[in-house]
Amino acid sequence: MSDVNLWEIARRFERNAAKAVVALATESAPLADGWMVFGGVGSYVNKSCGYGYDQEVTGAQLDALVAFFSSRGVEPKAELSPFAPAALLQGLAERGFVLREFETVLYRPLRGDEASRASGPGAPPGLTIERVDPRDDAAVRTYVEVAGSGFSPEGETMSEQFMALGIKGARQPGTDSFLARLDGVPVGAGGCESMDGLTGLFGTSVLPAYRRRGVQQALISARLARAVERGSDMASIMSSPGIPTERNAMRMGFLMAYSRAVLVKHGAGLTPSP
């Protein structure tokens, strides 16, 4: 696939990711060609992202980035692709930003036959994948509980802040939420958001007792089929490096596009964001 333009994939992914968190935020402000986003102390939407492509980021704008988050009591955070200009990286370093972690962005061009493969390879008997009606309060809440289970310590109760954000996300235009049931019991969940021809898969979790049984791959397949219905020509997944999500995606034809860097600026009294 030598004709694939990874810069363009990064531009599409980062722009869509920025638009998605802006829609969930309680406060946001433009930063060059991207955004600064705040959703409350402890919220995973607290970040700056989507910039460094079509406009130069000035020193004054980087100072505004620091002030935006620091004034709200959280660590300033910048999420960048490897195509970020060297001057932007230097400007962040001069202001005390350090690397916190890497994230992997995977991509896959979509085919017209995704719907015929929606059950996923090796799916266990009795497994069904249902698309959640965003108007059904109980179904949406079950989806958020299952989807969010993999992003908090096992046995820990989901915070109301996380639940409210998950419910709001499930009801966004262009978003589809899927619940996996095994013999009627909810065992896994995952969402996707389609925008500008790109469908991003996110928030996939499978309950511990049901892992390694093909549930996650079935959820991926269902969302790829939905992406084609939505008119997308490409799907993407963002994952921590080396975790099961990354491995399952690669088994289903996803390729690595790039590693994105998460940079933060520590400060006394500032709360880190997930």
From TrEMBL:
This protein's UniProt keywords: Transferase
GO molecular function: acyltransferase activity, transferring groups other than amino-acyl groups
Listed CDD domains: NAT_SF (cd04301)
Domain N-acetyltransferase: 127-274
Protein origin, superkingdom: Bacteria
Entry-linked InterPro entries: Acyl_CoA_acyltransferase (IPR016181), GNAT_dom (IPR000182)
Name of the featured protein: N-acetyltransferase
Natural source organism: Corallococcus terminator
